[in-house]
Design brief:
417 residues; five-stranded parallel sheet; globular
Length: 417
Amino acid sequence: MDTAQDAQDTAKRLRAIGDELSDRFYERADVVRTLVVTLLAGQHSLVLGPPGTAKSEMARELTSRIEGASYWEILLSKFTAPTRMFGPIDVAALARGEYRQVYDGRATTAHVAFIDEIFKCSTAALNETLGYLNERIYHPESGGEPIRCPLIGAITASNELPSGEDSAAIYDRLLVRIEVGYLEDPSNFAALVRSAVSRPAAPARTTVELAALRHAVTEAVPAVDVPDAIVDAVCTLRAALRRKELVASDRRWRQAVGLLQASAYLDGRPAVAETDLSVLTHVLWDSPAQRPTVEREVLQLVNPDAKEALDLADAIEELEAQLDAMAGQSREALSERVIKSTRRGPAESPGRRGPRHAPWRCWTRPTMPSATSSAFCSPPPTSSRCSAFRPAGPPASPGSSTSRRPSSAAAPATRRR
């Protein structure tokens, strides 16, 4: 089998791994795919969300599919010593008057790492952690030459954003930032409850060899072509975000190109396409409040119809919030509000984005525009926007904590009466 066929086989296996994990973890298809793309690009990711959202389990399940890889996992705290991360002191050698560290089973020998509560890194371990993530090196406490670590990529997790300058430095090293939340689709939640008492059949388990993954990261992914049209799109996106006062560093933009190449490679394409730009929605924001703005600017480039669908969904959400606010008002207050709205005219009514000829209180939800790209085959949900960038997969068996089961949140939201 030649090199090209090897690369295609590796991509096929990674797609199968992504599909299997998406079937197992409900409402996590986009999260799983983004983690695989990040690993292929040789970068680090942050999974941000509350406790009990399968962050650790997803990371363990993904990394366990890499045969031959050394895996390292740690839960950090403010008191975690650098030696616990990178290698404890060899007590037997110390008794002989030698100062050595034991590196086996620590971060210094890991190909893939999972670091939980990353922003609780102790001050003592901060500099070594930064060097480990950025340069893949560790400086032994006994001095001497820095140790080159074989790390391909780290998956990190946190329940909160960084609060100080020290943790912010680590935050900047994490190229991809993915938000996760609790299950939203009632049918997925019901399947989760059933899985607690049922014994499903053993799921399919595809694996990939460490050597094949390394070749993909170092050779196959960098060989993916980046057309001039994609370069122009990235420049356009940067200018649009700057107008919204969202500025990313030049280093972050440069590293993001590798993500685009990894996305195309994972899909088996020799060149980056516009649909690959969707991965940038996990790269170009610093706070979750900025993410919707980044999404819209990316959608404007990838699929304007999907962007319009998001705008319409926001209009519906805004109107529903107004209806909720009016629910406890008296009839007199409601009448006065309607009269004021009518005097302003339909176009000036709060939250009005519907047809100009209909008063706001009589406006019915417009039909969502159909997407023109296969990556945007359904209108995005109002509460979870990640699924707007990837098509929903086939129904999954209710056998575990999360899955790619089609979510009712992706269907048009009904207007409350």
